[in-house]
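Hi support team,

I submitted a single chain yesterday and got back a structure, but I'm not sure I'm reading the token output correctly. Could someone confirm the output below corresponds to the sequence I sent? I've pasted both exactly as they appear in my results page.

Thanks,
R.
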Amino acid sequence: MVTPTLGLLLFLAVLLHKVPEGFTVASITLASGRSRAAALLAGTALGVLTLLGAVATTLLAGRHVGYALALSAGVTIYVAASDLIPEVNREGGPALAWTVFGGLLLFTCADWALSRFGLE
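Hi R., thanks for writing in. Yes, this is the structure output for that exact sequence:
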């Protein structure tokens, strides 16, 4: 089940999470009184360390990538079921629920679009 489509979808998911995370790290650095250069360095370090982590994972667990993906999928489902969905239900308004639905729809559309290019 490990395919190029899955790889691209995971890449897009990481990219969509790491860009705002970089802004968050830079904002925290600036809020702590550090310089803009330190904030830029912190955001850059996050990106570089993410890439190094991906390379290290590939080298260390190359033959066991299916198990690693299954473990990460299980952790994601656990976090979604135990933390995110109860928070959506607690919020009271429909906006957060529509955001979760939009994320699922975005994933489905990305999967469909990538399969149209023969990346299955």
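A quick pointer for reading it: Residues 4-31 form the longest helix (28 residues). Let us know if anything else looks off.

Best,
Support desk
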